[in-house]
């Protein structure tokens, strides 16, 4: 498979604290990578650097020209008091392909409808996000991440607030997405099958194993 992204000797420090210490790896087409490690070990930090949301202290990232990303942040990192509907949140996943405040086409609206249907939340399209359950909100964020059909999905603990049935639904959907998108997700579940396992611990990144 062709390489999508490669990072070399990434470092991140806060004062005297080293979060990432010269970590290097690459992601190729249709990779399915689960990133594990202790809380506070740098998993979210690495995802944010790859997503371009946080500059590293040192090191480099080289992406394939035109690489597109879909990003799902941690559940607790988003303010749900903002007056916006479920449909508008998912539609915002197409914003990077439009100018700010530009209108969306009917085709794009239909694209959102298809994603909501796949996620089994079509009935929530006009509902304000403030009243959603944790599981519903996770599906909305996932919809925003996948609606643009990106080359690489970056997902930070997407299985938070999901019961066993919800997790099964999530991973089945991600397997479908993996037919066209590489997946890098942070999770404490180290039993996901057919995956590459990375671990961030003590500032280091290592490939633990490939689970089949």
UniProtKB/TrEMBL annotation:
Pfam families: ABC_tran. The keyword Transport applies. GO terms for molecular function: ATP binding; ATP hydrolysis activity. It is an enzyme of class 3 (hydrolase). Transmembrane segments: none annotated. The keyword Metal-binding does not apply. Residues 5-208 form the ABC transporter domain. It comes from the Bacteria. Keywords: ATP-binding, Hydrolase, Nucleotide-binding, Transport. InterPro entries: AAA+_ATPase, ABC_transporter-like_ATP-bd, ABC_transporter-like_CS, Metal_Ion_Import_ABC, P-loop_NTPase. Its EC number is 3.6.3.-. Belongs to the ABC transporter superfamily. This is Zinc transport system ATP-binding protein. It comes from Alloprevotella rava. The lineage of its organism: Bacteria, Pseudomonadati, Bacteroidota, Bacteroidia, Bacteroidales.
